[in-house]
Please model this.
Amino acid sequence: MSRCKRELALYGKGGIGKSTICANLSAALAERGERVLQIGCDPKHDSTRMLMHGRALPTVLDYLKDVPKEAAVIDTVLGEGYRGIGCIEAGGPKPGVGCAGRGIISAFEFLERNKVKDKYDDVLYDVLGDVVCGGFAVPIRREYADTIFLVTSGEFMALYAANNILRGVRNFDGDRHRRVAGILYNRRNVAGEDRRVERFAEAVGLPVVATVPRSDAFAHAEEKKCTVVELGEAGPERDVFLKLADEVSRGLTLYEARPLSDEDLESVVLYGHRVSSSEEVVKTEEAVTAEAAAPVPTAEETAERPDPHRMPLYGCAFNGASTEAIHLTDAIVIAHAPRACAFYTWQNISSPGRRNLFNRGILMPSAISPNYECTDIGQTEAVFGGMDALRESVRLALERRPGAVIVISSCVSGIIGDDVLAVEDMSTPETPVIVIPADGDINGDYMTGIEMCMHTLAERIVDPAVPKRADCVNLIGETGVANNTDVNYRTVKSMLEGMGVTINCRFLGDATAEELRNLTAAPLNILAVDAPDNRKLRAWLEEKYSLTFYDGFLPVGNRETSEFLRNIAGFFGRPEAAEDVIAREKARYDAEAARLRRVLKGKKVIMTTINANLDWLLDAAEDVGLEFVWIGVLNYLRQEIKISDRPDRQAAVEEIGAFFSIRDRIRDLHPDIVISNYTAATDEGDYIVDNLPMGQLNGFRSGLEVMDRWARLLQTRREGEWMHDRALFEKYFA
Amino acid sequence: MTERSLKSISPDSITGMIFAVEGMKNAIVLLNGPMGCRFYHSTTSQFLSIRPLLYLPAGENGERVRVDYNYLNDWFFRQERVPCTYLDGYDYVYSTKDKVSRALEFIRDSIDFDIIAIVNSPGAALIGDNLLELAREKLGGCRVVMLESSGYSTSFEAGYEAAALELLRQVGAPMWTAPGPRREGPPRVNLLGLSIWQRYFEGDLKELRRLFGLCGIEVNAALCGDCSLEELRAMPEADLNVVLYPEMGLDAARFMNEHCGTPYYVCPTLPIGFAATEAVFTDICALLGASADSLIEESRRSRALAWYKINAIHMSFGKPKGVKFHVAGNESQVKSYGAFLTDYLGMESSGPDDAELVFAEANLISELMLRNKTFCGIEISLPGMGYTDLLPKTHMGIQGALFLIEQVLNGLMSKL
Model:
């Protein structure tokens, strides 16, 4: 906590003369024996120049750019000016890059850490008021400035900025606090300015605390590289600051911030109308993120703003694009992000990899060691822009001669405005540099990121002119992050190879850039899973590359798999090849179904599920003698409910909402087996409870795998004793 | 393409911050950020240690009613840990305050909690909304920790340390009154630097409590390690702060020293292995006027047991002497495991590719497996491979030394 007596913030539009006023006030306070610290909060970092007799100080942000936080010392950036005035310049990034507001925040964190204010009586913040984003608003937070001055001339845009600063203050203070001392009016000698300032002051209920005359004395002092106060020449220019310093020392009356609406501001300042009642003063809390100097948004622009109560975005496009892009196995994927973002993605990718390795002994290269790197956007890049770091990462990646370099941007790079697309110019004849400007979730959710990735990679890599190859297919739209993806791929690959059909390209599941380049060579494409995004992808590929698609998906269950193999074999003109595979599998299937039938025959099942493809399960149930008496489908993937045209099956199915309770069905239907992802057991009835895995296994045995588990559950006791110990948990651990 | 160097991506400071506060009992971490920043923390937190249940705010009769997480849709998305404001592009332009405000109102009205922390995601930290004021307005007298900047690509440890410090500064210090006469009873210590995100957190804490007990010393509080609000309030009652991981606990120790005058002891290494454990506890006992004799006696008995088992392997295979090992972890871990493996077992430090035993997190271990290396991976930090522990295990203290030796001896069998 600061030990200084006063903290004064002087806000004003750029170029209004606030640095001159601030420096002179600092000098005047110092003349009165106060120990003063002036902190310039403007990227152009010339606030303290006259106090330092023309010497430019290294800015805090320039210093922190090169020196680690732990090693940074305050003395490097703290100058001693006229009468021992402490001088600091926060600084900022070059125009057009980085985030100046973030820069101010970083600089303040550094100053706080070093307790720089403790040895001063007065701290003056000289703050650019044109942009009142959160960063530039830091000095007017209540833990900083206790007194706020508005520096303005009589020009409309200066008053507009002053009014916006009042909005910022009100946003922090509401009507509970009073921190505004008034207006420091810097005359420009333009027509009508006195009246405009007076009208504004009256309308917002603030005094004009000091009027600084337009005078050559300031230019004269500047030539001498000092302030008017230090120059010491008698005159009104110097007196105004000495008087102001006295008032500050004695203690100023402080006022509530009562900004005007834009319409009232215009009416009052330009046309001289009076605001006749306090009702016309802006009273509601307003965000301080608008740019004060920017034109007022038109109604049309306002109407285009998205609804502030928007639906949540599940995941971010950055993550979706990243998890998809790593499947281009010979590419290097660069996350232009803080390490946190890349870590979440790495975990998302590697979690099934570790599980499969640990539990099943399966090595999944792209899930265990993804070709994924990160630019590690740090504080320096957040303030000064991250393009140098990104270019360096791309350069290093290109040296390794990958199939492609893929850059994916995070929300941080989006917010600070990095021009990420510019690195596409670094492409070489051998290696394309491909940018997916996801900008975190700014450009959409997880699924949007997947779509962005697939479209972008296809457009940049696929060669539509490659000749067709015989007897091969593409697998399109496999689930990127799932435990069963690799198992399913092996199953399908084995079945297809059994018929002499190979896989040309997995788009996008572990393919090389070369395989993706040859995407259109396959005569047939198979969509892996029925999902809205896959359906969109299919439509896009059909339109863009005229690809031919199998009219179905990777098969689940006995019947679907037989049909799938016959169709594929038929497409390639060798129907007999499918029959060999089917006959071999049928013998295994029948034997296992007979075994399960001994346990499951006559048992009743009810189920809630998000899977709309049901026939594979009902077929297997029939084969083992199970009866599905009711199925509630929570169809959030908006899939076609796949069920045979049989009245008994259709009668059992009902579409349900997210908060449907299965308890009534349990009570009425007396099931032996309850399948649900969200239902705890009730005491009404004697049944086993299980859930249906979200990712289904492809192939003949999908249904039997599930029912084998149910049979085992039925053969054991209904529940373990552990289930009764919840009360104990609550007793000992709650 | 040239093979990329071995380098899994580790968590950074925001994860350190979130898990520091998640380590406080009955605390809520509101992540002011996109949903993408939340999933990992929400999911992982539920599996770290035993997470407390959520209750509705107490009614007039004081009855405690559990929150049904099926109905925790708003902000929690049906997961009990780490609610979030699901920021999107709009919020970055027009401020996050509206969502934070609504989330705070929901949490205030729906959950009984002792402490709430608001953690800005890296994106939210860029725009600098003043949320502390908002939180105070919405939550009245509730204990709020505002973590404005979660850091950018700085270490997990840096994030943890910053959050622990802010917990003391924003929640602890305002509760601490002027010190009264010392409470009667055995000497007491606070433990600094423990985190629920450590691989064997529960076992570490249990073993440390046990060993302090052997020395007649009470553990007063383990900051951010299942620490309750009451324990946080009582932290100044400790006679000594013990800093286990300096990179995570030193700032907190210095703050308490400055604020309450509590002296602190920085462990030269983690108490990993017999010698380090004996040294750390002997030092602390000397500072507090306690006796480590019982601990030393138990340590010697355990050394005897270990000797028998190690000797059997040594006689048959000449190991562990000279076996190459690699430790990947934070500074304290590398130093502490390295000293034990080198000094006690006579092993030799090496790079990951040459090592027969690799002590690391599971991503690095599985990456090495992918390279067909013949080695044994021993997890010392998270993420883990997927093994679910019920019995708390530890590498710290005497029990920890035995467990570590057990893993090493079994691991040596991977390459005979």
Observations:
- Chain B touches chain A through 63 residues (CB under 8 Å).
- The radius of gyration of chain B is 23 Å.
